[in-house]
Amino acid sequence: MDPVKIVGIKYCGGCNPEIDRSRVAEELGACLPKGFELTPTSVPGRWDIGVLICGCATACANRPELMAEARRWIIVCGLAVDDVEVPGDRIVEAIVEKLSKIALSKS
Questions:
Q1: In this predicted model, what pLDDT tens digit does every residue of 51-61 receive, in sequence order?
Q2: How many CB atoms are located within 10 Å of the residue 107 CB?
Q3: For the CA atoms of the chain, what is the radius of gyration?
Q4: How many CA atoms lie within 13 A of 49 on its CB side?
Q5: CA 47 to CA 66: how far, in whole Å?
Q6: Phi and psi of 36, rounded to 5°?
Q7: How many domains does the chain have?
Q8: Which of 20, 67, 68, 96 has the greatest number of CB atoms lying within 10 Å of its CB?
Q9: Residue 72 exposed, middle or buried by CB count within 10 Å (0-12, 13-18, 19+)
Q10: pLDDT of residue 65
């Protein structure tokens, strides 16, 4: 049996949100694929995957020092997930698809 991958969430400061960042996080927590667990702590460090939820396309929280806090990142920038635009109601679905691909790659 493969070990559970720990998923952590970080947020931008929320100065100019185009999306409801909290809603995205709540919905993601409710529909994580099998083999993933959302950590209840906001303290990074031992995360397998980090999800950075930025409210707008500027993604000011996407900084080099942040990248060391998880092995892999999925970056939400307003209405884009990893630089691919998605409708607002499909953001969580796009994140779940990325997580599923990570699970399939076994890395």
A1: 999 999 999 99
A2: 9
A3: 13
A4: 23
A5: 12
A6: -125, 145
A7: 1
A8: 96
A9: middle
A10: 87
d(CA 1, CA 65): 33
Contacts of 39 (CB under 8 A, 6+ apart): 6, 7, 8, 47
Q: How many residues does the chain have?
A: 107
Residue 71 structural domain: 5-105
CA distance 44 to 8: 7
Q: Which two tokens stand for residue 99?
A: 């997580």
Please give the Cα distance from 75 to 15 (Å, whole number): 17
Residue stretches of the chain with pLDDT short of 70:
1, 41-45, 106-107
Q: Which two tokens stand for residue 7?
A: 């998923």
Half-sphere exposure of 50 (CA within 13 A, CB side): 23
Query: What's the rounded Cα separation, in Å, for the pair 79 and 16?
Result: 13
- Retrieve residue 70's tokens: 């998880």
